[in-house]
Amino acid sequence: MVDQPVIPHWLCDDELGKSRMNDVMLCTFSPEVKKICQGDSGGGLVCLNSEGTAFVVAGIASYAYGCTEIAPSVFAAPSYMLDFVYSTMQSMNFINFIKVN
User: Dihedral of the CA atoms 89, 92, 97, 101 (nearest 10)?
Assistant: First the structure.
């Protein structure tokens, strides 16, 4: 696990040299810390909750440019996909499925 600060969309766009960020994305960046790489897609970005009592999934690894370049990592925000996840899990008849509001 590594510490990576979440940065604003405009800064991520500046660092990537493109305007690719939208509301369903989160961007992390620190020049001193490793970033996501090939094979990391689908992995979680976890953050401590506001009470400091548990970790929550804040992002799902989406993409980064290269593995060694100093550039941001981009994550999809799972909160925008919850309805899809819940309906998919229900349609697959998962047992012990709990919807959290």
Answer: 30
Which token pair is 63? 């993409």
> Of 75, 86, 85, 63, whose CA–CA distance to 23 is shortest?
75
pTM: 0.75
Strand runs labelled E in the chain: 6-7, 25-28, 44-48, 55-64, 73-76
CB-based contacts of 5, cutoff 8 Å, min separation 6: 28, 29, 30
| Residue 70: predicted pLDDT | 81
Q: Which two structure tokens, joined as six digits, stand for 54? A: 């548990």
- The closest alpha carbon to 71, from 33, 22, 29, 36, belongs to 29
For the chain, list the domains and their CATH numbers.
Answer: 6-91 (2.40.10.10)
The answer on pLDDT for 95 being more than 60 is: no
Amino acid present at 45 = L
* Residue in 69, 45, 71 with CA at minimum distance from that of residue 59: 45
- Average pLDDT over every residue of 38-66: 86
